[in-house]
Inverse folding.
């Protein structure tokens, strides 16, 4: 009804304000503190003040809106849009007041929350989080830290088998793809390709490492396979110490082979055993292909979203471009650390720091080493979705999205942010290289329609609708279901989220994080159009469709309702 068309906007949302005004709504302004002021009786405006305001109407288009705002300053706002949940105390709202946030969504909008709660997914769904979320650990939790250490070691052993196979000139049976001159390493090949990276393509100089290194990696992987197959069901999985492996020595030799290109002694039978064992492990480990062979992990501030926070061990953390070169560690601003050595992960996480440090502050996640590249360059995708109810869970998926490119070509030899972090706030620090592919966008942004056109040009026209979109939808729903019981649901609330995905070489999506209050500030022509559209369509869903289910919902598609 007309008397309920009063709204409040807090934060940088000129599109929302303009759209609501165009619908005939009147804005009640937030107080200077950013929080809604308590209701109180208005003081009548002075007569001369009214005359001054009338004279300004023609001069200042905002004058009439400011006057109307003052007239309703003690009226109840029935639509509230803020950039943070804490701007409004939802406990004090009336039942029919609509607000764009839910409380306690950190269960899936922080890296720590997502890491913890996706482990509970099998209790709610048949989905396996390892098929869409790179494995992740909270390092302040002792049991998870130990699990990460074992994971790192096992990944090193598997990686050594991969390097052994690649350096003999043969890819894994059934995964080798013929080279395509129009594609860079790692570009989309739906059936999966194993493209050697620079440091693993040839054997390096110097004497070959002991042939027992490959034999040791084979033994470790066989034991792990036995554990995965529950062959040791009568006892606990063998701990690394029980397996008789000198892990310090093994990892140092592994670093020499992978990071320094040291030669690897390998017999013909060993190569065949490596191939056979990797094939068997692939049946148990959904992340075997995407994890690559460099054992790169990302250390992130766990209680933050959008990369906010500060890492320990402040090397390179001044925000400037990192020094190029083969390095086991590069600290990305702000607070994201790319690490390829176990000792550095543990040191930077400060696991031996003062006990007063908050448990779970840092998470470490496996880096997707074999991403889908476009003209040799890494990108990620921002995908919006909308939740309009948590009981029953009701999810809307936006059918438009946008890509964010890195400014420099992808390389595991150089772990600089310009090559590995797609965030706009990071990439704007770097200049584009002169040799950059001419078809890459100068503003670092594509729409998903441009991605579809590119995929069609490289012979993968069906990948978007058949692989990418279904995978993103399933990942979003799974993440929400895993946290559903933890969110404080309210019937008149809704919330728009921004999920960040990266695609593997096979075009399968990998969920990186979910952001509450995703930015609506345009950084390019693509985002200017799409950010305006998603805000307009959000209003269609939460205002028009709420009152009349026959109303159109723009590009929002209802993908899940319990």
């Amino acid at each position: 009804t007309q008397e309920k068309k009063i709204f409040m906007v807090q934060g940088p949302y000129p599109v929302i304000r303009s759209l609501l005004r165009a619908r005939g709504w009147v804005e009640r302004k937030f107080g200077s503190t950013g929080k809604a002021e308590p209701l109180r009786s208005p003081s009548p405006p002075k007569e001369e003040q009214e005359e001054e305001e009338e004279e300004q109407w023609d001069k200042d288009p905002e004058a009439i809106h400011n006057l109307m705002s003052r007239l309703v300053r003690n009226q109840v706002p029935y639509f509230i849009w803020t950039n943070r949940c804490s701007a409004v105390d939802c406990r004090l709202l009336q039942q029919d007041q609509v607000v764009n946030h839910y409380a306690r969504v950190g269960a899936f909008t922080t890296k720590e929350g997502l890491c913890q709660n996706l482990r509970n997914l099998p209790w709610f769904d048949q989905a396996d989080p390892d098929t869409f979320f790179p494995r992740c650990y909270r390092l302040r939790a002792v049991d998870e830290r130990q699990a990460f250490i074992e994971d790192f070691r096992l990944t090193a052993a598997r990686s050594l088998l991969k390097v052994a196979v690649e350096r003999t000139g043969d890819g894994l049976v059934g995964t080798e793809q013929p080279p395509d001159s129009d594609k860079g390493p790692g570009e989309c090949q739906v059936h999966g390709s194993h493209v050697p990276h620079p440091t693993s393509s040839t054997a390096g100089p110097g004497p070959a490492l002991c042939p027992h290194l490959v034999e040791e990696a084979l033994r470790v992987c066989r034991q792990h396979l036995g554990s995965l197959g529950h062959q040791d069901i009568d006892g606990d999985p063998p701990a690394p110490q029980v397996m008789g492996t000198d892990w310090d020595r093994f990892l140092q030799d592994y670093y020499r082979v992978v990071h320094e290109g040291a030669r690897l002694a390998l017999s013909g039978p060993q190569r065949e055993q490596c191939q056979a064992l990797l094939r068997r492990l692939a049946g148990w480990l959904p992340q075997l292909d995407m994890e690559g062979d460099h054992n790169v992990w990302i250390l992130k501030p766990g209680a933050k979203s959008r990369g906010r926070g500060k890492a320990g061990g402040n090397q390179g953390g001044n925000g400037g471009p990192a020094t190029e070169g083969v390095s086991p560690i590069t600290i990305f601003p702000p607070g994201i650390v790319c690490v390829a050595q176990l000792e550095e992960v543990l040191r930077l996480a400060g696991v031996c720091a003062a006990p007063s440090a908050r448990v779970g502050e840092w998470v470490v996640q496996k880096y997707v080493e074999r991403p889908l590249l476009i003209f040799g360059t890494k990108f990620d995708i921002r995908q919006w979705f909308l939740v309009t109810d948590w009981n029953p869970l009701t999810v809307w998926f936006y059918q438009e999205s946008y890509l964010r490119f890195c400014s420099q070509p992808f390389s595991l030899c150089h772990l600089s942010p310009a090559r590995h972090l797609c965030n706009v706030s990071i990439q704007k620090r770097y200049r584009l290289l002169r040799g950059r592919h001419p078809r890459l966008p100068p503003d670092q942004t594509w729409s998903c329609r441009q991605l579809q056109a590119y995929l069609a040009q490289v012979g993968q026209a069906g990948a978007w609708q058949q692989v990418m979109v279904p995978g993103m939808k399933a990942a979003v729903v799974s993440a929400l279901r895993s946290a559903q019981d933890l969110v404080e649901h309210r019937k008149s609330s809704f919330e728009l989220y921004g999920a960040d995905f990266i695609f593997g070489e096979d075009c399968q999506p990998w969920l990186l994080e979910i952001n509450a209050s995703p930015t609506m500030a345009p950084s390019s022509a693509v985002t200017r159009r799409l950010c305006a559209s998603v805000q307009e369509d959000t209003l269609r869903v939460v205002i028009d469709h709420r009152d009349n289910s026959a109303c159109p919902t723009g590009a929002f598609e209802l993908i899940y309702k319990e």
